[in-house]
Amino acid sequence: MPELTPTDLRTRLATALPEALIEVEPLAITPPPAHGPQPGLFHPPDPFIYPDHLVAAALFVRDTLGYTFLSDIAVVDYLHAGCFELVYRFYHPAGGPGIVLRVRVPRDAPSVPSLTPYWPAANFHEREAFDLFGIEFVGHPYLRRIYMWDEFEGFPMRKDFPRQGDKYLGSDE
């Protein structure tokens, strides 16, 4: 079974695709509280990829390193930092631990290239991220809502989506 640590992956990517890697600042886990202990900083060891180089990095992971199974695409909303982080998890068919690629995009214009043309399984995950967070996947063959109805306004998993008193809960407040 292959075992590729985040540091090994970053080194391999730096050699093959040096323009794809980006150094990012650690993010606070939560906004600073008014009182009490200060939050810790979250800085995972996984490589961060420029959005424009996501396809090349993902194809390198698949075609060169053999991690052919794209398990999922998770979205983290860092409202206080003004960005979304997309977490792509890949696994090798021989087993072993997976590897992760991360991409950060601004909340006001979240857009990344689609992996659906290369991994058909990305279709569901990209549509889910589009529907619930409003992230656009450029080149997706059928990007439309998957959970919410077409007339639904907004993106319900964003941290700034109104949870009480909005028109979908039937309250006028």
What does this protein look like?
The protein has 173 residues and is α+β, with helices and mostly antiparallel strands. It contains three helices and nine strands; from the N terminus they run αββββαββββαβ.
Shape from CA axes?
Answer: globular
How many DSSP E strands? Answer: 9
Structural class: alpha+beta
Q: Which sequence of SSEs, written as H and E, runs from N to C?
A: HEEEEHEEEEHE
**Helix coverage percent:** 10-25%
End-to-end C-alpha gap: 57 Å
Rg from alpha-carbon coordinates: 18 Å
Describe the main β-sheet briefly. 3 strands, antiparallel
Rounded average pLDDT: 88
How many helices?
3
Spans of 5+ residues with little confidence (pLDDT < 50)? none
SSE diagram, text form:
Layout: H1 6-16, E1 21-22, E2 27-28, E3 41-42, E4 48-49, H2 54-63, E5 69-78, E6 83-91, E7 99-106, E8 111-113, H3 122-133, E9 136-138
In a few lines, what is going on in this structure?
The protein is an alpha+beta fold.
Labels describing this entry:
173 residues; alpha+beta; 3-stranded antiparallel β-sheet; two-stranded antiparallel sheet; 3 helices; 24% strand; globular
